[in-house]
Amino acid sequence: NAGMLAQEPSLGDHDNPLGINPDADRTVGERGGYTPAYFTTLLRLATLAPDIVEGIVAGRQPASMTRQRLANVTSLPLDWPGQRAALGFTAAA
Fold first, then answer.
1. In this structure, which of 36, 39, 50, 74 has its CB flanked by the most CB atoms within 10 Å?
2. b/e for 32-60, b at 16 or more Cβ within 10 A?
3. What is the rounded CA–CA span in Å between residue 53 and residue 40?
4. In the chain, which stretches have pLDDT less than 70?
5. CA distances, 12 to each of 16, 38, 48, 65, 70 (Å)
6. pTM for this model (two decimals)
7. How many CA atoms lie within 13 A of 11 on its CB side?
């Protein structure tokens, strides 16, 4: 939905790197029965590298990777190598 996207984000937009309209987040999240904070967490997790998702689903995540830790990560890099480093995963093969 084009209405969900704000103007194109600048490279320096660290608070909203995906350029998503916060009001749209609230509306979509509330329609799904989620709090704005939980919905924002879901949006962040949607950008995880595929091998990280596969590792978590298969139970091969680092011992330090808990659901709570993952949910509380607020500055997860958008680039997949940065995500692997931040979350303690080894490089993808």
1. 39
2. eebeeeebbbeebeeebbebbeebbeeee
3. 18
4. 1-29, 92-93
5. 9, 24, 21, 29, 24
6. 0.59
7. 0
